[in-house]
Each structure stands twice: as C-alpha cells, then as structure tokens.
Specification:
70% helix; membrane; cell membrane; RodA/MrdB; 1% strand; two-stranded antiparallel sheet; 2 domains; 431 residues; mainly alpha; glycosyltransferase
Length: 431
C-alpha cells in the first residue's frame, strides 16, 4: 500500500484531472455569482454562523466539492478490478434503489426522484448513469457487437432501458433522456450505423409531424419512396415488403405523434415543446425561462458585464440560475469570450476522455470511457442548447458547473472511475 500513491502519481492522467479542477473551480465561481447578493456581508465566512451560511448555494457547493475530493480518493484507492467484477452488483443495487425511490420519495415539484437523508437530498437517477455504464461495459466485454445475436441485442437493450423507464416512472423525463447517449458508445463498438440513421430519421419525422400538415408529410414521403422503388428495380423486386412496412410505420408515427403529444406528455412538457417550436407561444409563462436566459446571455456582449455585475441574475429574472440555467451567468458576466472558453474546456475534456478510452487495453475500459464521454457530451450539449432556445427545457445540469451534490458526485464518479481504470491499463489483458 505504501507504493500506491507513488504508482498513481506516475500513472494517473493529470491532464484530465487538471481539466476537472478548472471546470469545477469555474463552476463554483459562477454558482457564487448567481447567488451573490450585494447586501451580504463583505466577508460572510467571518460574520455568519454555519447555519446561516447553509442558506447560500455557494457555501453548500464548497461542501459538495470537499466531499467530492474525498470521493475521488476512495475511487482511485479501490482496486480497479472491482469496477469490472462488481459492475452487475452495483447496477442491481441501483435498480432496487430506483424502485424504492418510487415509493418512499416525497413528491417535489411533481417528481418522486429525491431521497432525503436528514439535511442531504440525493437523486438516484444521477448515479444510475455510472452504474449502467459499468454494467453495459461489462456485458459488451464478453460479446462481439458486430456479430451479436438477438439475445445479446435484447439483453443490451434491457440493461440500457430499465433505468430510464424507472426514472420516467418517477416523473423525471429529462434524466431519462440522457441514457440515449449510450448509443454513441455502442456505435464505437460496432453497432450498425443504420440504427443511428433510423433513430435520427424517426426523430425528424416526429418533429415534422408537429410542424407540417400530416397529409403533406405523408404525400412527400410516399413520392420519395415511390421514386426510390421506380429508379431501382432490384429494390422493388427484393425489398417491396420491407418498403411497404416502412411506409406503414411512418403512417403510424405521423398519426401517433398527436396521441403521444396529447395523452402521454404532461401539460408542462407539451408547453415546453410548443415554446421550442414557436418561441413566442407563451413568453410570460413556460417561455419565460428561455427568454430571460437569452436576454442574459445576449446582454453580456463580447467580454461580459464583469464578475458579480450581472443584472439579470442579481434580480432573479432567470429561474434556476444556479442549476439548470447556470450557463446564462457565464454569458452575462463573462460574455462571448467567457462562453467560448467554457465550451472550449468542455470540448478539450471530451477529446481527452476519448483519447484515454482509445488507449485502454480492454473492451471494458474502452466502452466505459466512451460511455463517460457520451453522457458528459449529452449533458453539455442539451444544457447549453436549452439556455439559448435550441433544445427543450428538460431540467438536466451542466456537468461540474450546476449547483448540487448529486450532480457533482455523479460526474466525479463517472470520470474518476475511468481514470482509476486507466491508471492500471498496462496491467490489463486484451480480451
């Protein structure tokens, strides 16, 4: 054990650690700015009691960062083989916890997704991401995704879909959508690109079904399909039943989107989609958050108003400004230059994670690395997208920036499990 710290100091990927420290530090500065009040004491740490300080998000975030440091030490000290060996055990435990959350969690804003342990609130959905990443990585280490049979495909789909289904049952749709990011990792390991194309095409058709008259959409698709069949007689001879099935499926999707939109989605979810498609639909209601967020980001100009000088955030025009809409604080106080630096740091981290994933000597390590990159990318892209009106407001945090212990612990765990596995990559056998 005495040689453990020295071994890690030589093997740990310090570039990734440095990027993590930078992002967490910048995140805390923006949480402080978002919750800063000009009326607060100049030196609150010396003028306020612990109980009074706990009323401030920036102070609680310091505590979360401190506990994250302890978590990092635990994660890197644990034998890296434990993550492979106990992947299914951790996954099974998280599934049981998600089920328990449905029954014992207190409803908060219509969602049963938070467990309360005294003054601490934890969201199991956040931690389900790394347990699912470990489980699917362990499963994929034992199969060849390019040659897998239907049983393997169904097993992988079940491992991936069970957690988000339980999360949706707790009325936390945004967190459930994140699990779609695993498709990027599966694509790296040999999943047919046709699956991604089918999913993308289905998404485009569903969006068009909300924007374009249905008969026009079906007419255009029918003409395109007929032209493909007419111009390629081989397709017409051998794949006519498949073409008819696709046409029937598209009809079902086009006419089924209304049922899903009106009977499955909740009113606030329908409103968010309507506002995304038509920003002027409800500017003082559901569209308020995004409108004020865009005003805050746009008002920052090139270099921003300056640290603690943001007016939109100081006067609480932007709801959830410490959590889901933390990026608008970056835009207002640091301007275009600050947002460019922030986005650049995230992109650098993602590239570094992919580099770390590619140098793994095991399928387990490589797949897990791509799962980490996919999850962080999804959060990063969707969170920033929703603050500037390019994505619906689904309530997912910006990694390492948004206030909250569950979020910080979850992303810290995701990242440092990968670094712990990477530190021992030279000892892995190719499987």
């Amino acid at each position: 054990m005495a040689s453990l710290p020295a071994r890690y100091s030589r093997s740990i990927d310090w570039v990734t650690v440095g990027l993590y420290v930078l992002l967490v530090g910048l995140g805390w500065l923006n949480v402080y700015a978002a919750s800063y009040s000009p009326d607060a004491p100049a030196n609150p740490l010396s003028h306020l009691s612990f109980g009074e300080l706990m009323a401030f998000n920036w102070f609680k975030q310091i505590l979360w960062i401190g506990t994250a440091v302890v978590l990092i030490v635990v994660l890197v000290v644990i034998d890296y083989k434990a993550y492979d060996t106990f992947a299914y055990v951790l996954y099974g435990g998280m599934i049981l916890l998600l089920i328990a959350t449905l029954f014992i969690a207190r409803p908060i804003a219509g969602s049963r997704s938070w467990l309360e342990l005294g003054p601490i609130r934890l969201q199991p959905a956040e931690f389900a991401k790394f347990t699912t990443a470990l489980a699917v990585s362990q499963f994929m280490a034992g199969i060849n995704l390019r040659q897998q049979n239907w049983r393997d495909q169904l097993t992988l789909a079940g491992l991936t879909l069970l957690p988000p289904l339980l999360i949706i049952a707790s009325n936390e749709t945004g967190q459930a959508l994140v699990f779609g990011a695993f498709l990027l990792a599966y694509f790296r390991e040999g999943m047919s690109p046709l699956i991604l194309l089918i999913i993308a095409a289905a998404g485009i058709i569903l969006v068009l079904a909300l924007l374009v008259p249905k008969l026009w959409l079906l007419g255009a698709f029918t003409v395109i399909l007929a032209l493909v069949l007419a111009l390629n007689t081989r397709v017409l001879r051998h794949h006519l039943p498949l073409a008819i099935s696709i046409w029937a499926l598209v009809i079902g999707m086009v006419f089924g989107v209304d049922f899903f939109f009106n009977n499955v989605l909740q009113p606030h979810q329908r409103k968010r989609i309507e506002v995304l498609l038509n920003p002027s639909a409800d500017p003082l209601g559901v569209g308020w958050n995004v409108t004020q967020s865009k005003i805050a980001i746009g008002s920052g100009g090139f270099v921003g108003k300056g640290f603690l000088q943001g007016t939109q955030t100081k006067f609480d025009f932007v709801p959830e400004q410490s959590t889901d809409f933390i990026f608008c604080t970056v835009g207002e106080e640091w301007g275009w230059a600050g947002t460019l630096v922030t986005i650049g740091l995230f992109m650098t981290l993602l590239v570094r994670i992919i580099y770390v994933a590619e140098r793994q000597k095991s399928v387990f390590g490589r797949t897990y690395g791509y799962c980490v990159a996919s999850i962080i990318f999804f959060h990063f892209a969707v969170n920033i997208g929703m603050t500037i009106g390019l994505a619906p407001v689904v309530g997912i945090p910006l990694p390492f920036f948004s206030y909250g212990g569950s979020s910080l612990w979850s992303f810290t765990t995701l990242l440092f499990i990968l670094l712990a596995i990477d530190a021992y990559r030279k000892q892995d056998l190719v499987r």
